[in-house]
Amino acid sequence: VVDGETYLPANLPALSRQIYAHYALPWRDDAFPALLNVQEIPYSQGRAYQAVFHYISPADGAGLMVTVNAVSITPRPVTKANWGDAAYPVDFLDLPVAIRKARQDGMVGQLREASMTLWKERRAAWMLKPRGPGGYTYHALNGQRIKHDITGYVEQYNKDWAEANRNLKALLSPREEENPYEAEARMWKNIFGAMNKRECEAKKGGHFQYNSCYIY
Question: What pLDDT is recorded for position 153?
Answer without folding.
Answer: 40
